[in-house]
Design brief:
The structure holds three protein chains of three kinds. Chain A has helices at residues 3-22, 72-85, 89-92, 109-118, 133-143, 182-194, and strands spanning 41-44, 49-51, 60-65, 96-101, 126-130, 147-149, 155-157, 161-164, 170-174. Chain A has a single domain, classed as Glutaredoxin. Chain A is built from six helices and nine strands; from the N terminus they run αβββααβαβαββββα. Chain A is an alpha+beta fold. Chain B has a single domain (9-252), classed as paralog of FGE (formylglycine-generating enzyme) (Alpha-Beta Complex). In chain C, the strands form five sheets. In chain C, strands 1, 2, 3, 5, 7 and 11 form a six-stranded mixed beta sheet that branches. A six-stranded mixed beta sheet of chain C has the order 12-10-14-19-16-17. In chain C, strands 13-21-20-15-18 form a five-stranded mixed beta sheet. Chain C has 13 helices and 23 strands. In chain C, a hairpin with a 2-residue loop joins strand 22 and strand 23. By secondary structure, chain C is of the alpha/beta class. The chains are: A alpha+beta, B alpha+beta, C alpha/beta. Chains in contact: A-B, A-C, B-C. The interface between B and C is large, with 34 and 37 residues.
Chain lengths: 195, 268, 499
């Protein structure tokens, strides 16, 4: 073997090592009961496209809504805010909120951006998003949220605040809106400190 | 040279054999058991295509072989509970007691959706299913016929422990078979059927599921057989399976261009 | 200001729940400071107890506890075909495999962890509403269970009493009409006074498309249920469930307590025990006691506790005293009391045959045999005679006597009857269409009215008449069910002008 071949070998070996270390750090298998098993594309209020699974890595609150919803959805946003405030300040920073629309027909990124501004949401933690209709049904199924499109274009829907752990498992949920659910807040706190 | 011809020919035949049969359902105005809103107006069902038969064990087996992430030993728990396909002998074989022509059961809503997508289809909406199922052999709406109701109720009153019959029952007005008397069938919006009519009514989302729903008005009195099907679907979660729940698929009304035969390796 | 607003919204939130007390009690006795939730004796103590559930008519033993415990109840819904009457079956939907469902016994203040399972072979989803639960739907909302699945919810038993539980899945009337009900006893803190026997009896009305005792598997009839026209009114889900060898038993000089419920779905019961008086009744299962009661009302979806002391031996017939239900729809059960007679209290002979009729002896075993053979196409004359004899007692014997002698001048004899000798098949017509006007039998003239025996079906008429023709020196021969059917189809002939 000559020098060139030896160098090649060393180079290949180095490349291999490099590839192994730069590959996603020995990713723990995605748990079978993680909602991130559902691979759907979303678009946020800034028009930025992302996959649901890209949210993995931090605990977060998830729910579903739609912008034309007059009563419950504003209440939902308020409840989410109150829930955030109920946490100790240090933990508040670690919690993100993801809302997905039932109504992709009307809730395009521009509309989402309008509502985002209207409600003065905090861009460092909140995301309003939409996905295509077949994916809405799948997402609702995986989150156990019920909804029904009415003839006028409105939706009837159940309302749940859902806590995901960093791996996308549902660890707590509440359907109390209007005021915070102390048990739910406690669950969020526990999950955030476990990280 | 011969081999070059035989392989595509075989795949063409295999592709044709796997092509399920869909029929046109014209749609129209329809008095659904679940009124669209408080005014109890009729719903309008757009024309659509419906699979003539529920999906069989053989068809579903071919599907999990082509898409192994839906095998019972590989499926993510979020998409199906442990009883998924538990009656099959193994993850990739039916076994002697599970017949290829029986409708597949012990499948979750997610698995059913995925199968339908593999056929470039989707689960039917409740209104579509209900529309097609309102017919008998000769009439497009047989629901006021007590005999039609009796047949359905007599199936409800039989516990589901007996082996399932094979597909191939009598065709209804549209040529669709086995909508009644064989298996419960998933629909796309199975969990939207009894959502409370007023979203502000957060205190009692279950009102319609229970005692209140039993107070039927005159129109519903004749349709309580259909209402019981709604109750059944409402009791399920998307990852659930039961030994009497199967499914069939639906497609939009426009005819779909013929399938280009796919060679193994195209599919992910 | 802020404090009062949050208190206000908390109050509003709590008030919007169906039951304030339930919400408060849900947190193991922790109630808003200063308020006491009645029946809440604090958090459960000791190891969790797995409740012993019993099959009717048995009742679990007293809890004999003086502290609140956590009790785990596991109940499975099973859909199964069971006999409802002789030769008649029905697909019942059951709690635990029986109608009524298993009896549950806990103590006031217990925390009950309820597991409802739905057998994988069920066709329908089911749930449970326990009337003893304080909380939304009585548990119905939390227990809606698909086939092959299980639900769980927990409640605190705040109120003592005897309560109905039933399935509340739409359409509720149908689920209840198919037998989905039972009783849960929530004992008072000091328990119930000891008695010698406790029994569990529950009345229900049933609606089949076929007529009363029409043979075969009978489907549920929604129209009849809505019209409130039951085919059967039964104790414990079947005719004969508590008669003959399945009768309840006691000895003389004992105390008997019956937890008597009424699942409905429609009828109210007028519960009475023929020959007994209830010493104590807790009407509607409530806490107040009434004494010396003959007949007590049990609402649909309600229950009562009755107690009495036995003095004299005999068969005590329990009925719904809306009496056509007892004798023409099956609402009849028996408590058999054995022991020494006490002539000072009661000296008459038992009028078994009048009241009990075909229920007096062991359960119509010969009739069951005959029905089985008939459906296999192998019915023999001997089987007909045996079955006919059992059916004769109490139907025909009431007038014509058990020995066929009749009542001189009033009811013609069947023994060695000249009418039967002349034209045996005429008996079919007489039984089906009745007979009024003059008729001469064995040289004597009778002028009475025999009503048509419309409650008998073709098999029963054939068997009874075969028995009659082969008894007491009558000409013999046999009558087949299809002959009866043919005669039934023809109109009644005019009264014969004597023979």
């Amino acid at each position: 073997m000559n020098i060139r071949q030896c160098a090649n070998r060393i180079l290949s070996a180095l490349l291999l090592v490099l590839m192994c270390t730069t590959a996603p750090a020995g990713p723990r298998e995605l748990p079978g009961d993680s909602i991130y098993q559902l691979d759907i594309p979303l678009v946020d209020q800034n028009g930025h496209a992302f996959d649901l699974a890209q949210r993995r890595g931090k605990p977060q609150l998830v729910s579903m809504f739609y912008t034309s919803c007059q009563y419950v959805c504003p209440l939902l946003v308020d409840t989410l805010r109150k829930t955030q405030k109920a946490l100790p300040a240090a933990q508040r920073k670690k919690l993100d909120v993801l809302l997905i629309s039932f109504d992709p027909g009307r809730d395009n990124p521009r509309r989402l951006k309008e509502v985002f501004a209207e409600r003065k949401l905090d861009a460092s933690h909140w995301t309003l998003s939409r996905t295509e209709t077949p994916n809405v049904r799948k997402l609702a199924a995986v989150l156990d949220i019920e909804y029904k499109l009415l003839p006028g274009g409105d939706f009837n829907h159940s309302t749940s605040l859902i806590l995901l752990d960093a791996n996308g498992r549902i660890v707590a949920r509440t359907s109390k809106i209007g005021e915070t659910d102390p048990q739910f807040v406690a669950a969020i706190s526990r999950t955030l400190s476990a990280d | 040279m011969i081999r070059c011809l035989v392989l595509p020919a075989f795949l063409l035949v295999a592709g044709m054999a796997n092509a399920a049969d869909y029929v046109n359902v014209p749609g129209g105005q329809f008095a659904s058991v679940l009124p669209a809103d408080a005014t109890r107006a009729d719903v309008v069902v757009a024309p659509f295509m419906l699979r003539r038969e529920p999906v069989t064990n053989a068809e579903f087996l071919a599907f999990v072989l082509e898409q192994p992430q839906w095998r019972r030993d590989r499926i993510a728990r979020v998409f199906a509970e442990p009883s998924y396909l538990m009656h099959w002998q193994s993850a990739d074989a039916l076994g002697a007691t599970v017949l290829p022509d029986q409708p597949v059961t012990q499948v979750s809503w997610f698995a059913a959706q995925a199968f339908c997508e593999s056929e470039r289809a989707r689960l039917p909406a409740w209104n579509e299913w209900e529309f097609a199922a309102a017919s008998d052999a000769t009439r497009h709406d047989a629901r006021s016929d007590p005999l039609w109701r009796e047949q359905i109720l007599s199936w409800y009153s039989q516990p589901s422990g007996k082996p399932l019959a094979a597909i191939g029952g009598a065709a209804n007005f549209y040529g669709v078979r086995d909508l009644h008397g064989l298996v419960w069938e998933w629909v796309d919006d199975f969990n939207a059927l009894l959502v409370a009519s007023d979203s502000r009514d957060q205190n009692d989302p279950d009102r319609l599921k229970f005692c209140g729903a039993g107070a039927l008005n005159l129109r519903d009195r004749e349709n309580y057989a259909v209402l019981m099907r709604v109750a059944m679907l409402s009791s399920l979660k998307a990852a659930d399976t039961t030994n009497s729940t199967g499914f069939r698929c639906a497609r939009p009304a426009a005819p779909v261009p013929p399938v280009a035969t796919q060679v193994r390796g195209d599919r992910q | 200001m802020i404090r009062s607003m949050s208190a206000m919204s908390a109050l509003l939130a709590l008030a919007s729940l169906p039951c304030f007390a339930g919400a408060a009690a849900a947190g193991a006795g922790a109630s808003p400071a200063g308020s006491y939730v009645h029946g809440d004796f604090g958090p459960p103590r000791g190891e969790p107890i797995h409740a012993m559930l019993t099959t009717p008519p048995m009742v679990p033993p007293a809890t004999q506890r003086n502290y609140p415990a956590k009790v785990i109840v596991e109940l499975e819904v099973i859909e199964k075909e069971l006999p409802i009457s002789e030769g008649v079956t029905y697909t019942f939907w059951t709690f635990g495999g029986t109608v009524p469902g298993k009896f549950i016994r806990v103590r006031q203040g217990d925390t009950v962890e309820f597991h409802l399972k739905n057998n994988p072979n069920s066709k329908m989803p089911h749930n449970i509403d326990l009337h003893g639960v304080t909380g939304p739907g009585g548990g119905a909302a939390s227990s809606f269970t698909a086939p092959g699945h299980e639900s769980q919810f927990t409640f605190k038993a705040l109120n003592q009493g005897i309560y109905v539980y039933h399935c509340a899945t739409a359409p509720v009337g149908m689920h209840v009409g198919n037998g989905m009900y039972g009783l849960i006893l929530i004992e008072p803190p000091d328990g119930l006074a000891p008695v010698d026997h406790e029994y569990y009896v529950m009345q229900g009305d049933f609606y089949t498309t076929g007529k009363y005792r029409e043979k075969g598997l009978q489907p549920f009839d929604m129209e009849k249920a809505i019209e409130e026209k039951p085919t059967y009114v039964l104790f414990n889900g079947a005719e004969g469930s508590l008669t003959g060898d399945k009768a309840l038993t006691a000895k003389t000089n004992e105390t008997v307590r019956i937890f008597i419920g009424n699942g409905g779905p429609n009828l109210v019961s007028s519960f009475h025990v023929i020959g007994e008086i209830f010493d104590r009744v807790q009407p509607e299962g409530g806490t107040k006691v009434q004494e010396n009661v003959q007949t007590t009302l049990i609402p649909a979806g309600g229950a009562a506790i009755v107690e009495f002391h036995t003095e004299v031996p005999g068969s005590y017939v329990m009925v719904d005293h809306s009496i056509f239900r007892a004798f023409n729809k099956g609402a009849l059960a028996i408590l058999k009391v054995d022991g020494p007679e006490d002539k000072a209290i009661y000296s008459g002979k038992e009028v078994d045959s009048v009241y009990l009729g075909d229920r007096a002896g062991s359960n119509l075993a010969a009739v069951t045999e005959a029905t089985k053979s008939a459906s296999a196409g192998k019915l023999t004359k001997e089987e007909q005679i045996k079955a006919g004899q059992q059916l004769f007692t109490g139907t025909c014997s009431v007038c014509h006597q058990a020995n066929g002698a009749g009542l001189p001048g009033v009811f013609p004899p069947l023994a060695k009857s000249s009418v039967l000798a002349a034209e045996p098949k005429r008996s079919i017509d007489i039984v089906l269409h009745g007979l009024s006007g003059k008729i001469t039998v064995n040289g004597q003239e009778y002028n009475s009215v025999m009503p048509p025996m419309t409650q008998l079906n073709d098999d029963e008429v054939a068997n009874i008449l075969t028995f009659v023709l082969n008894s007491w020196d009558n000409p013999g021969g046999r009558i087949e069910a299809d002959e009866v059917a043919k005669t039934r189809a023809q109109p009644a002939p005019k009264a014969a002008a004597g023979h």
